[in-house]
Specification:
Blueprint lengths: L7 E5 L5 H18 L3 H14 L2 H10 L1 H12 L29 E5 L1
Antiparallel strand pairs: 1-2
Length: 112
């Protein structure tokens, strides 16, 4: 008999930045779909990618993902600046705007 549901899930352990999460999840799905990775390895690679993402690489990634870029622009026009500060108030590394673990370390993969 067929079963319904999902073999795995990605969850966050704390509140996360929406736009950083959008970058992370876009990259996660690219790792799964293009590279054929399982969820845990795809998440690990996406987290490392986001942690090490430079401002220039972010711009190139957004240029390759127009819908995501449009959302970034919309949020910026409302005064939301993702990846520039973390909740403790300190600035992150200017060239690596998502280097603080707050942006990428909250996520875990559960299941197969």
């Amino acid at each position: 008999m067929p079963a319904a549901g999902s073999a795995s899930a990605i969850a966050s352990l704390w509140l996360v930045d929406d736009l950083a999460t959008a970058l992370l999840m876009t990259r996660f799905y690219e790792e799964v779909m293009s590279n054929g990775l399982g969820p845990a390895e795809a998440l690990r690679r996406a987290q490392l990618w986001l942690r090490d993402l430079s401002a220039d690489e972010e711009a190139r990634f957004l240029a390759a993902h127009p819908a995501l870029a449009a959302e970034f622009r919309r949020r910026a026009s409302e005064g939301d600046s993702p990846g520039r500060r973390h909740s403790s108030g300190g600035l992150t590394n200017g060239d690596r705007p998502y280097s603080h673990p707050e942006y990428w370390a909250a996520f875990i993969a559960m299941g197969a």
